[in-house]
């Protein structure tokens, strides 16, 4: 029921991945440029924190609304309208003055992202057959991480050479990639007329124990990683005495590990027997990631973190790929927008919780101790979830049935 296409449309997969990579690069380019601009203008940590919060909060708060929008509106229309709107907001940002105005516009920009993320995530499973989904997800994740790798260096160079306006105008242009994707991708999620007028398919996270445990475990790990994001600058720079160059190298190392993990699990994930096994492997990846953080607490030199960060990033990449596959397999096609929006909200909320907890603690405890505590907390969360996943795997129910709803994919009406 979940996979309605008979042939994988790889051109669509690469178009969607390209749009994701370009837009993610633009997102990180703008975020880095704005943070640099606020810091250079003398704004304090509160302003930078407000900027990060404005970029993350709409994705968590608006998930119930944007998920339903992704399920009830033609995916092509959403990508085109949201892409144009985000480009215009970014142009306004390039000419905005005042911290409050900038933060408000960043929040509006994130509202568009809250729509396009579940739209693209729900569209990907409709492009490929089930046995190709892990590979397609790996391609999509890889494109996003390449954008993440390029953006910080590009932002530093552009801000240094041209100031804040040029990188923000470039960011505005990157959102047009979403418009191009909307026009060029043949696969479309178009709800049938009856579904568009009525409520969306009823789907609740708690109705599927396997997916609920997966989302909870991922949120716990993300909270720990979010805390590490705040702590690591003090741990690496102060405790280990590393230079800013080494700190930048280590940040890139984790992302490089994510690339490797996305590539590897994109190829082996298709051979895993079912969603229960995939969730177990996902939790194993989470456990490896948390164990790496715990081991990092014992490092006496910053360069010792390079192999650890590569392994941790690979686990992170595996989590991303396998989570998307499980969600696509376990959630009815008509409710995937809601499901992916819920996942995004859990991840964003957990990340913000990690930031909030780590900030006050860093002034009270040694960074090394906090790194160890984050690793232990993540391992405990994984250990608690594993038995629940095993039980859910034994009792796994078939995918929920949703009646004779119809969803149009690439012009063909497919009954589920």
UniProtKB/TrEMBL annotation:
**Which parts of the chain span the membrane according to its record?**
12-38, 44-66, 78-96, 102-126, 138-160, 166-185, 210-236, 242-266, 278-300, 306-327, 339-357, 369-389
Gene3D superfamilies in alphabetical order: MFS general substrate transporter like domains (1.20.1250.20)
Q: Where in the cell is it found?
A: Cell membrane
Q: Which GO terms of the molecular function aspect are on file?
A: transmembrane transporter activity
Any Pfam family = MFS_1
Q: Name one GO cellular component term.
A: plasma membrane
Q: What is its main location?
A: membrane
Could you tell me the membrane topology recorded for this protein?
Multi-pass membrane protein
Q: Cross-referenced InterPro entries, in alphabetical order?
A: MFS, MFS_dom, MFS_trans_sf
Where is each Major facilitator superfamily (MFS) profile domain found?
Answer: 1-390
What UniProt keywords are attached to this protein's entry? Cell membrane, Membrane, Transmembrane, Transmembrane helix, Transport
The identity of this protein, by name, is Major facilitator superfamily (MFS) profile domain-containing protein
Native organism is: Actinoplanes friuliensis DSM 7358
**Lineage per the UniProt record:** Bacteria, Bacillati, Actinomycetota, Actinomycetes, Micromonosporales
